Amino acid sequence: MVFTAIAGFFIVAIVGGVGLGVASADSMDDMERAGAFGFSKSSTHTDSLSQQVNATVESETFQFLERSALAEATPRNLDAGMRMIDDMERAEQERIAAENAAALERMAAEKAKQGVETSKETVSGEAPAPETVEYNLPAVDWSVGKEAFVAEWSGRIDGYLSGSPLEGYGQIFAEAAWDNGVDPRWSPAISNTESSKGEVCFRPCNAWGWGNTGWGDWETAIRAHVAGLAAGYGYSITVEAAQIYCPPNWQEWYNKTLTQMSYI
C-alpha cells in the first residue's frame, strides 16, 4: 500500500516535470514571438524593409536634386563658354587685322621711297586687282594676314629652292619678308643670281654676295639679308636697286634676278 502511494507520487512528479518543461519551452517561444527581449523575427524583418525603403528614397531624392542642379547650371556654363570662344575669336581677328595693317604700311613706305605708287585697294587692305603688276611681276597680296601670307609663300619658296642648301627655309624667307615689308621673291632670287641658291658662297651662309661678312646659320643670314634689302634697296627689285647692288654688271644682274623672281 505504501509502495503504491510512493510510486504514484513519483509518477505525478515526473508528469508534472515534463509538463513544466513543455510549458517553459512554450513560454520561451511565446516570449520570443512577443518580443520579450526587445526584438523578434517579425520586428527585425520589418526594420530591414524600412531601412531599404529609406535608402531608396534618399538615393532617388539625391539623384533628383543632382539632375535639377545640372539642369540649372548647364545653360549658364554653356553661355559663359560661348562668350569666351567669341572673345577669343574676336581678339584673334583683331590681331590679324593689326598685323596686316602694319605690313601694308611698311609696303607702302618702301614703295614710296622708290616713287612707286601704291594702289588704294592695296593700302585699304583689299586684295589687289589680278591685272595689277609690280615691277613686271604679279602683285603680292598683303591683305590676307600674316599666317596666310607665310603659309602661301613658304611653299612657293621651298619649291623654288628644292634640292639646294637653302631648301626648307621657305618659312624663314616668308616671315622675314612680312616683317620687313619686302617682296618675298626677292631674296631667294638673289641667292640664285649670286651663288646658285647657296651652292657657292664666298663667305659662310652668305648666298647673296652681300657685303663682306658671313653668318653662323642660314636662318640668321636670311633674316639679316631681307632686313638689309628693306633698309638699303626698297620693297622689290628695280633698276636703281640693281645699280646699287651690283654696279659693275647691274643690267645683267637685274634681268637674271627678275627672271628668277617670276619662277617663284
Please characterize this protein's 3D structure.
Mean pLDDT is 74; it is low at 1-43 and 118-133. The chain is built from nine helices and two strands; from the N terminus they run αααββαααααα. Helices cover 69% and strands 2% of the residues. The protein is mainly alpha-helical. α4 crosses α5 and α8 (239-245) crosses α9 (250-262).
Sheet-strand content, in percent, reads under 5%
Q: Strands across the major sheet, in which order?
A: 1-2
For the record, give the distance between the C-alpha atoms at the N and C termini, rounded to a whole number.
147 Å
Which descriptor suits the 3D outline?
elongated
Order of helices and strands: HHHEEHHHHHH
Low-confidence stretches: 1-43, 118-133
Q: How many helical elements?
A: 9
Biggest sheet descriptor: 2 strands, antiparallel
Strand tally is 2
Overall pLDDT confidence: 74
Label this structure with key terms:
264 residues, mainly alpha, 9 helices, disordered N terminus
Question: What would you say about this model in short?
Answer:
With about 260 residues, the protein is mainly α. It has helices at about 1-35, 40-115, 120-125, 145-160, 170-180, 185-195, 220-230, 240-245, 250-260, and strands spanning about 135, 135-140.
